[in-house]
Design goal:
globular; 4% strand; mainly alpha; DNA-binding; homodimer; two-stranded antiparallel sheet; 6 helices
Chain lengths: 154, 154
DNA sequence: CCCATGTCAGGTCCACTGACATCA
DNA sequence: CTGATGTCAGTGGACCTGACATGG
């Protein structure tokens, strides 16, 4: 009841639209990954490790836009599942580099195909120029937001 | 360590960029709202109720892209805080329309100013045409994603 | 009967904060 | 000392599944 009624200026709010788009994408990815038993953050972590092997927990946290603590929990889960391995002692400093296991690579290739299919659907309505344009605009938004959050290392 | 190294094709992934943008916005809004004690979802709920008084829990859940259960918990919190009132009996059907209290309106006007300032910063890097363009592109993405998730009413 | 709604229960995952120790 | 890191503890939010009652 009263689902699509007046739409005040919610649709003119970029924040709301951003939330809506992100939500739609998250739901789609979540559903696509469900059969594999991976969550979206877990997939993201695996993908990051595949592309940049040896990232530390803090590195991964930054790249995934979460805190070290959150990423730590996530990493533990992946280690328990045998998808990720971490050195038990630090060569230098305290950073413990993480890497995918063989099982992790196998799991990822499947998940990666799935996710790419979702992304393909996401961009199916846009031609190449529009995709570039969207990237430019979003990047501009991020840059406009960034400076104000500095100095909070999180 | 190894924060900005090679950037494989993460920056070419619209999904990743979307996540990054959304995350930056969420952090900014979160920080801006912190002094008032409101969370972003709580603010969103208040804003929705101000613009469309009488929405039911299920209505709000749909509009905020969360489940009925999550919105139910959120609503209870707002009721406990005296910001929202709900009819105790349904006039028709089972839907219990919700409305802002006077305190809710007061709280919202403050929060609304705060959030609009953040949105202004978000769009500060874009001229009017670019904002329109961004809206068009994001909407196209949402539409491309939507149909596939139907039939899962959630 | 079918569907949407409101609600309760249990459990999981993720994210945050705060705090502490370690190491370059 | 400072800064980055890993980690423990606690909390809260949001999700899911399942279930049930009620009203159109």
């Amino acid at each position: 009841m009263s689902q699509e009624r007046d739409r005040v200026d919610l649709d003119t709010s970029l924040g709301y639209l951003l939330k809506k788009t992100h939500s739609a994408l998250r739901v789609a990815m979540d559903g696509a990954l469900r059969p594999s038993g991976l969550s979206v953050p877990q997939y993201a972590c695996l993908e990051l490790l595949a592309q940049r092997p040896g990232l530390s927990n803090a590195d991964l946290a930054r790249s995934a836009f979460v805190t070290r603590q959150s990423m730590n929990v996530l990493l533990r889960g992946l280690q328990r599942a045998g998808l990720v391995k971490r050195a038990s002692v630090a060569e230098t400093g305290r950073a413990l580099p993480a890497q995918l296991t063989a099982a992790g690579h196998r799991m990822l290739t499947d998940a990666s195909r799935t996710i790419h299919a979702v992304e393909a659907r996401l961009t199916s309505a846009l031609d190449h120029d529009q995709q570039t344009q969207l990237r430019v605009l979003l990047t501009a938004c991020v840059d406009a937001l960034q400076p104000a959050e500095t100095s909070t290392t999180r």
